[in-house]
Design brief:
With 682 residues, the protein is of the alpha+beta class. It has 16 helices and 35 strands. Helix 1 crosses helix 7, helix 2 packs across helix 7 and helix 10 crosses helix 11.
Length: 682
């Protein structure tokens, strides 16, 4: 049987297929179709079925990562959204935390709330911070507001009342009335989407969920329709921001949880690869067509966070902690009004794309610079299936960059690459040295279509000594989907002081959330023996503003163990503990999951290195070394443990690795290309 992982990127849609019987892995790419991402999925799957002589009924699993939700928020293409809230709190989305995005820049404009003010309805009701009802819900007033939203053509409604995480009944009743009067509207209530305290983040996340709902549902419907058209009966799963998989029904309910869908899969896959290669700590470096995504893996576990901003909108949901910058293969190079050269964040994307791709691009990009310098194949990429226009790439770099700056085309192309590399290195320092982490103690895993292409120079910029490029690195996020667990977090804020004598009541609360997780796993058709549960209490010292997470084992330990674990977590986060200070429980969290069954066998050959040689070509190193003659190797033919001395270029279907002079590379037993770095020739 066949398991399929799909990652919808800005430039390409990647496919990885695993035969569960033989362990054989198949890789495939298709240009993305931004107007309808499901179109590229259908086209690519049809091509893959034909190319590998597979039958659609053999496909037992389809998992996919998508940037559909993120792009809707960035481009403000979501649904017409209304908000129903407690009287007096209509403007919380605009007031926020009363913080300026940039303290010293008075020209910065805050993003427009996803629910416009004329569609934000106030209703008389009030619950206090302990969950006590102060004012009952005025249903007549609510009905008048909902009827107004219906007349205005509102497509989605977010329901957000004060302290509804403690008393959700008003929201539940409101949801019932909205569904009665607006049967076609998508409805999100905060006590379901995010039952946690901190009103601004809860309101923002719930509104974003509603904003995404209708169009995301249409996208999912088209996806299912296209899979059915191909004869694939497997229900598709979507990876969410926490690195787990959700069924179509769950995604329809919580589309906001997919905002880091694809990149999260790459980090999860990298954690598996790092463990197999013997690295407990790793920096993940994912360079695609539009962005560079950087994250950390420590002690075999990716770093996670519970909140971040997407296009300046706060989104609070469990997610892999990924830092994203606008630097990818399609990033556009330009000269500003002061004559300085910039690269990104604007991208040519999939359409029109880099000039070298011959899809209508007219601006120089990072990809064009690599083609000009011979680092990318100047004839064709993707195993010869995508022709490259070297003359066009050279012409646009010369006309738009070299001539205005008074330099050679090689110098201009090299300058584009160096600026991009500097931006990438800055992103790595942000998640390492600026957080007190020494990056030299971490392996550097470079993937994505352009990750290995820029991995060596970026690693040297950061003082690293080794680059690890997984097999077919350009499809790493799709591969990561196949090793991701089915999972979902269940969380609720219940702020209370920690009292030893009341520990049994706390453990009873955790059992309630475990029950919710168990019911969800049952709805996902996960067998009982595969169900797993992770318990987390989020706590702080009384008087603190933010909490730390304390993982707890199964079965739940005693109160003394919790106290020790809390002090350890607090010291790790803040560098100190206060044993005499009162501890306050904030959030109860249980994660239900089921392990992935995705496996793959390395099929790297033995034999002679000469059999892997597919040609020679010159590439430009830097203005001092200039052009060097390099051997070009086919990645899948390189024997295990055979050493390659630079200058060399290693190509596979999805990516290109450049090995500079005086550097040495080899392929390990897991199929990873390991490049040992020196500063010579750089």
């Amino acid at each position: 049987m066949i398991r399929v992982g799909i990652d919808v990127g800005g430039t390409f849609t990647d496919f990885v297929l695993i035969d569960t019987k033989s362990g054989e892995v198949m890789y495939f790419k298709e240009p993305s179709t931004p107007h309808d991402p499901s179109e590229a999925i259908e086209t690519g799957l049809a091509s893959a079925l034909a190319k590998y002589d597979l039958k659609s009924e053999e496909i037992e699993f389809v998992g996919h990562g998508t940037t559909v939700g993120t792009n809707m928020v960035i481009e403000l293409r979501g649904a017409k959204t209304g908000l129903i809230t407690t009287k007096g709190f209509r403007d919380i989305l605009e007031i926020g935390r009363q913080m300026r995005p940039d303290v010293y820049n008075y020209r910065v404009i805050k993003p427009i709330p996803l629910a416009r003010r004329q569609y934000r309805i106030e209703v008389s009701e009030r619950v206090d911070a302990r969950g006590n009802v102060l004012v009952e819900l005025d249903e007549a007033e609510l009905r008048r507001g909902v009827e107004y939203l219906a007349r205005e053509g509102v497509e989605a409604v977010a329901i957000c009342f004060l302290h509804s995480y403690l008393y959700p009944e008003h929201e539940l009743r409101s949801e019932s009335i909205v569904r009665e009067l607006m049967p076609r509207a998508f409805v999100s209530r905060s006590s379901d989407v995010l039952p946690e305290f901190r009103e601004y983040e809860r309101f923002s996340t719930t509104t974003a969920n509603a904003y995404l709902g209708p169009k995301f549902e249409n996208y999912l419907a088209r996806l299912v329709e296209r899979l059915t058209k191909l004869g694939i009966s497997a229900n598709p799963y979507t990876i969410h921001s926490n690195g787990g998989l959700m069924s179509i029904d769950t995604v329809r309910r919580y589309p906001v949880r997919t905002c880091l869908s694809g990149p999260a899969a790459g980090v999860i896959g990298s954690a598996v690869i790092a463990a197999q290669a013997g690295y407990k700590n790793a920096i993940t470096f994912d360079v695609g067509g539009t962005s560079t995504d950087v994250s950390l893996i420590s002690d075999g576990t990716p770093h996670f966070t519970t909140s971040r901003e997407v296009a300046s909108y706060p989104i609070k949901t469990p997610m892999v902690d990924i830092h994203v910058i606008g630097a990818g293969g399609g990033s556009i190079a330009y000269i500003d009004s002061a004559g300085a050269l910039h690269v990104g964040p604007r991208s040519a994307g999939a359409v029109p794309g880099p000039v070298a791709y011959m899809r209508g691009g007219v601006e120089p990009t990072l990809t064009d610079a690599n083609v000009v310098l011979g680092r990318l194949n100047p004839v064709a990429i993707l195993n010869g299936t995508m022709p490259i226009d070297l003359d066009g790439a050279r012409r646009v770099v010369e006309e738009k960059i070299a001539i205005p700056l008074g330099m050679s085309v090689e110098q201009a192309a090299y300058g584009i690459i160096r600026i991009a590399v500097s931006n990438m290195a800055r992103a790595i320092r942000l998640v390492t040295t600026q957080r007190g982490i020494d990056p030299r103690k971490y392996a550097f895993i470079a993937y994505g279509g352009a990750g290995p292409l820029h991995g060596v120079e970026t690693a040297i910029e950061c003082g690293l000594s080794r680059v690890v490029a997984p097999r077919e690195p350009g499809t790493m996020c799709a591969r990561g989907i196949l090793v991701s667990d089915v999972s979902l977090d269940f969380v609720q804020s219940k702020i209370r002081p920690f009292i030893r004598e009341c520990w049994s009541s706390i453990t009873s609360e955790m059992e309630v959330f475990r029950g919710e997780a168990e019911r969800w796993l049952a709805s996902e058709d996960v067998p009982q023996y595969q169900r797993q549960y992770e318990n987390v209490l989020e706590a702080r010292y009384f008087g603190q503003n933010h909490e730390v997470q304390i993982p707890l084992p199964n079965p739940l330990p005693d109160a003394e163990t919790f106290m020790r674990e809390f002090e350890h977590a607090h010291r790790k986060e803040y560098g100190y503990s206060l044993p005499d200070r009162q501890i306050e429980i904030v959030n109860f969290r249980v994660r239900g999951s089921a392990p992935s069954s995705g496996t793959a066998h390395c099929q790297q050959p033995n034999g002679e290195l000469e059999l892997a040689i597919i040609g020679r070509r010159e590439f430009f190193v830097d203005p001092d070394v200039k052009w060097v003659d390099a051997v070009v190797y086919a990645r899948d033919r390189i024997p295990v443990s055979t050493r390659i001395t630079g200058p060399a270029i290693v190509e596979d279907m999805s990516s290109t690795c450049v090995i500079f002079p005086n550097q040495v590379a080899f392929v390990d037993a897991q199929g990873n290309l390991i490049i040992e770095l020196t500063k010579s020739g750089q």
